């Protein structure tokens, strides 16, 4: 079968539509299934790591970006194959040559800024609640429970930890954050040190260690300093 320009345009449009739906689908996956850590405790009652097809939320974010780039490439192909038609319509809509040039320059500038601006922007940094405040609240709750019930109070999972370690962090990031040799951290959870750049959520899935054990080890190291 001869692949004519019309058929090629049709194939590009079909693939572009499929990729567009994939971009939307992955966006829904990240928004409603692989929810961020701040919402997981509310939904599951504890801090958990979520995966789909072996990928966590951050890895699906990478997939979302790749699909977006593929979509842009297909859109450029679509424009190239319809260039004569686009130019003809453009000239009919804006008869003045100077106006067309100015609009073209404006569109190019806006497009370039939208693409490269995120590479130079700085995020707004908002300080989270301090670990000392969390410890004070836990201590008050322990005291209240001891007075009323005469028993020891146990906080919910992760509430009583003064260190903040999440599945989205790598072992190397934990080592840098708390100034602990990465070799010691890897040994504590029985993970090869060569995997220190991998996200803890993925390592937990592959090696089956308990995140609480890692937090305990880091707290002990900090206490000895």
- Low-pLDDT stretches: 128-142, 144-161
Major sheet size, sense and barrel closure: none
* Helix fraction bin: 55-70%
Whole-angstrom Rg: 26 Å
Average pLDDT number: 80
Order of helices and strands: HHHHHHHHHH
- How many extended strands? 0
Task: Report the principal-axis shape.
Answer: elongated
End-to-end separation: 74 Å
The total of helices stands at 10
Which class best fits the helix and strand makeup? mainly alpha
Q: Would you mind describing this structure in some detail?
A:
The protein is an all-alpha fold and 225 residues long. The chain is 66% helix and 0% strand. The longest helix is centred in the N-terminal third of the chain and has 29 residues, at 5-33. It starts with a helix and ends with a helix.
List the defining traits of the structure above.
10 helices; single chain; mainly alpha; 225 residues
Which secondary structure elements does this structure contain, and how are they paired or packed?
Layout: H1 5-33, H2 37-44, H3 57-81, H4 83-93, H5 97-116, H6 131-149, H7 171-178, H8 182-188, H9 200-207, H10 211-224
């Amino acid at each position: 079968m001869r692949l004519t320009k019309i058929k090629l345009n049709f194939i590009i449009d079909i693939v572009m539509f499929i990729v567009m739906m994939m971009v939307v689908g992955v966006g829904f996956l990240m928004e409603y299934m692989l929810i961020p850590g701040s919402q997981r405790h509310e939904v599951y009652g504890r801090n958990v790591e979520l995966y789909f097809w072996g990928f966590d939320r951050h890895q699906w974010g990478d997939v979302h970006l790749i699909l977006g780039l593929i979509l842009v490439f297909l859109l450029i192909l679509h424009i190239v194959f319809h260039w004569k038609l686009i130019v003809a319509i453009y000239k009919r809509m804006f008869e003045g040559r100077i106006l067309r040039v100015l609009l073209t320059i404006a569109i190019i500038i806006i497009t370039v800024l939208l693409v490269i601006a995120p590479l130079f922007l700085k995020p707004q940094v908002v300080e989270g609640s301090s670990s000392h405040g969390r410890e004070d609240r836990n201590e008050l709750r322990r005291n209240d429970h001891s007075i009323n019930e005469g028993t020891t109070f146990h906080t919910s999972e992760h509430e009583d930890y003064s260190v903040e370690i999440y599945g989205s962090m790598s072992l190397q990031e934990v080592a840098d954050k708390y100034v602990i040799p990465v070799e010691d951290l890897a040994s504590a959870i029985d993970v090869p040190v060569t995997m220190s750049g991998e996200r803890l959520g993925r390592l937990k899935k592959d090696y089956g260690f308990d995140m609480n054990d890692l937090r305990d080890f880091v707290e002990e190291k900090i206490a000895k300093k």
